[in-house]
Amino acid sequence: xxxxxxxxxxxxxxxxxxSAVLERLNKIDEKVEFVNSEISxxxxxxxxxxxxxxxxxxxxxxxxxxxxxxxxxxxxxxGISI
Length: 82
What we know:
Blueprint: H1 15-77
């Protein structure tokens, strides 16, 4: 039942070559992580900008409504026209 294809292949590698390959793989991994973090940071900036625009619009609408509903009638009752 045992074939040559069932055996685990074994390879002897020079430790210097092995560590060189591992070093190259680590550099590639660092570059991939850096690119992923840059992409995430750009997405975060876009989301932050959109949320800031939304908060600014909501704050402006609230200030406008407060002026129209409360401040303008109060000033008009005092006889002050703006």
